[in-house]
């Protein structure tokens, strides 16, 4: 589902490791190696942190003393370049001298237009994800909206699934609350990439966010994790919508 | 008729008349309705002509905008005329709009409930008053038909539901004592429960299956003496 709606998805990837004492000596080398592979034309430096910006692909890479972080507008860049980005992460971590990671995480968030109004989706949340509204009358007589978070583990990956019907205003506000959006733009005064993305998702939609993670993993496992995460985000988001629509969920 | 002196002589409700009382009261202030005291307003409109105007804004299902213009003559009067304009917004038609995706979902959900009701008939099949047991099935079918009545894309669903309902009418419920008949009906309802879209071919297949099971999906002949008066999609009361 997310793969088919790649231009309505925004993503984060983070590889967290123990803070490094000698990070200052290694950080520039790591950033340089990453930029060389990423071919990101723009970069920046803030104390203790390098930011690499591929504004054409709408991708950011940030490296600091305890984390390698990627952020993208759209899922397409991951679909096209997953192996390449996995290599960039590997190179960066090797330069930093990191083998073992405390946590790796991939988060994909999407505002998906599924042909229903917010009111309809909110109504269908009852009886699909939670008890029918009539059975909750002792709590309150009227319900307007639902936000649901589910935590668990699927195929060895911990997940936090958030589903919510959203109005146009909620969809825009959720997206605009994302950090670093201005960093995707170059030149900043004329690049309308973020506005175009915002306009694309500005509709009543079903919000799906999947935060997938593993703890205590070797650096070498990152490519597998990324591939699994992409597939899992796709299948779980599809299942989440099928559940709302009372369609039989076919598990792979 | 001039206003009574008792009103004009007072500086009614004016912020200019504080305890100091030194500020001049503008003449117009006394005539501003917002600044009239309750007592003055009562006197002013005690015997006023009263005209009520209701404007109804009914939101159509096409959500098209429009303008309502209505002209009423208010005759000359020595007394004040109180005109009350009440605007009524009637959203029922607009609220009835439901997206095809929503209607599909409602159909799948409710069809599951009908299938359960059909399954629940099994332990009661031998009862003398079996007709009573089939009532929930008929009721659920009728309710779903009523819900889908305005759906633009659920015509095939409605047709299958009508076929099913017809099989229960005019004593057709007796056939549902047979497990094979129930199984056939449940299989058809499962299609409504699981399909993303119900096709005309599925309507024909449902008809054939019901017919082959010895049921009457057509319903009573139109020349039969019956109290049931059904429009195209209107659900009349269904007798056992």
Please tell me about this protein's structure:
Chain A is α+β, with helices and mostly antiparallel strands. Helices cover about 35% and strands about 30% of the residues of chain A. Chain A has one domain (about 5-245). Chain A has helices at about 25-40, 75-95, 120-125, 170-175, 195-200, 220-245, and strands at about 10-15, 40-45, 50-55, 60-65, 65-75, 100-110, 150-155, 155-165, 205-220. In chain A, helix 1 runs antiparallel to helix 2 (about 75-95) and helix 2 runs antiparallel to helix 6. Helices cover about 40% and strands about 10% of the residues of chain B. Chain B has 8 helices and 2 strands, in the order H-H-E-E-H-H-H-H-H-H. Chain B has a two-stranded parallel ribbon with strand order 1-2. Chain B is elongated, with a radius of gyration of 33 Å.
Mean pLDDT score of chain B = 75
Strand content of chain B: 5-15%
Kindly, what is the distance between the CA atoms of the first and last residues of chain A, rounded to a whole number of angstroms? Answer: 14 Å
Q: Number of helical segments of chain B?
A: 8
Strand order of the largest sheet of chain A: 2-3-4-5-1-6-9-8-7
Number of strands of chain A: 9
Give the ordered list of helices and strands of chain B: HHEEHHHHHH
Biggest interface between chains: A-B, 12 and 12 residues
Radius of gyration of chain A: 20 Å
Task: For the record, give the distance between the C-alpha atoms at the N and C termini of chain B, rounded to a whole number.
Answer: 73 Å
User: Number of DSSP strands of chain B?
Assistant: 2
* Overall geometric form of chain A: globular
Biggest sheet: strand arrangement of chain B: 1-2
Count, helices of chain A:
6
Helix- and strand-based class of chain A?
alpha+beta
Could you describe the largest sheet of chain B, including whether it forms a barrel? Answer: 2 strands, parallel
Mean pLDDT of chain A: 94
């Amino acid at each position: 589902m997310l793969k088919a709606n790649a231009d309505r998805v925004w993503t984060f990837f983070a590889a967290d490791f123990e803070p490094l004492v000698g990070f200052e000596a290694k950080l520039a080398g790591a950033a340089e190696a990453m930029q060389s592979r990423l071919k990101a034309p723009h970069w920046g430096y803030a104390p203790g942190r390098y930011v690499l910006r591929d504004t054409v692909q709408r991708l950011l890479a940030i490296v600091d003393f305890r984390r390698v972080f990627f952020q993208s507008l759209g899922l397409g860049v991951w679909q096209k370049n997953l192996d390449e980005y996995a290599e960039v992460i590997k190179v960066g971590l090797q330069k930093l001298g990191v083998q073992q990671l405390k946590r790796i995480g991939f988060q994909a968030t999407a505002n998906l237009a599924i042909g229903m109004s917010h009111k309809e989706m909110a109504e269908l949340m009852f009886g699909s994800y939670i008890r029918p509204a009539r059975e909750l009358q002792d709590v309150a007589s009227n319900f307007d909206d639902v936000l649901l978070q589910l935590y668990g583990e699927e195929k060895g990956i911990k997940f936090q699934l958030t589903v919510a019907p959203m109005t146009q205003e909620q969809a825009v506000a959720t997206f605009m609350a994302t950090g670093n959006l201005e960093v995707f733009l170059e030149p900043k005064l004329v690049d309308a990439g973020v506005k175009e993305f915002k306009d694309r998702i500005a509709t009543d939609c079903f919000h799906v966010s999947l935060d997938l993670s593993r703890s205590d993993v070797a650096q070498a496992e990152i490519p597998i994790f990324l591939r699994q995460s992409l597939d899992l985000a796709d299948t779980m988001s599809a299942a989440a919508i099928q559940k709302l629509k009372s369609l039989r969920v076919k598990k792979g | 008729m001039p206003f009574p002196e008792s009103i004009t002589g007072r500086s009614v409700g004016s912020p200019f008349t504080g305890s100091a009382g030194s500020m001049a009261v503008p003449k117009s202030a006394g005539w501003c309705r917002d600044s009239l005291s309750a007592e003055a307003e009562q006197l002013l409109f005690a015997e006023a002509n009263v005209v009520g105007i209701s404007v109804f804004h009914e939101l159509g299902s096409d959500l098209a905008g429009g303008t309502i213009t209505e002209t009423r003559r208010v005759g000359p009067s020595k007394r004040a005329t109180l005109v009350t304009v009440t605007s009524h917004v009637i959203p029922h038609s607009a609220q009835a709009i439901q997206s095809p995706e929503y209607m599909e979902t409602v159909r799948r959900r409710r069809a599951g409930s009908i299938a359960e009701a059909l399954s629940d008939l099994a332990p009661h099949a031998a009862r003398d008053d079996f007709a009573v047991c089939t009532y929930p099935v008929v009721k659920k079918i009728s309710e779903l038909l009523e819900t889908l009545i305005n759906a633009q894309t659920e015509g095939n669903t409605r047709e299958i539901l009508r076929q099913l309902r017809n099989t229960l009418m005019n004593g057709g419920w007796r056939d549902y004592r047979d497990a094979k008949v129930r199984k056939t009906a449940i299989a058809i309802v499962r299609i409504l429960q699981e399909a993303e879209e119900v096709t005309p071919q599925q309507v024909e297949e449902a008809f054939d299956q019901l017919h082959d099971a010895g049921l009457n999906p057509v319903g009573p002949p139109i020349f039969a003496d019956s109290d049931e008066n059904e429009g195209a999609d209107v659900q009349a009361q269904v007798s056992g």
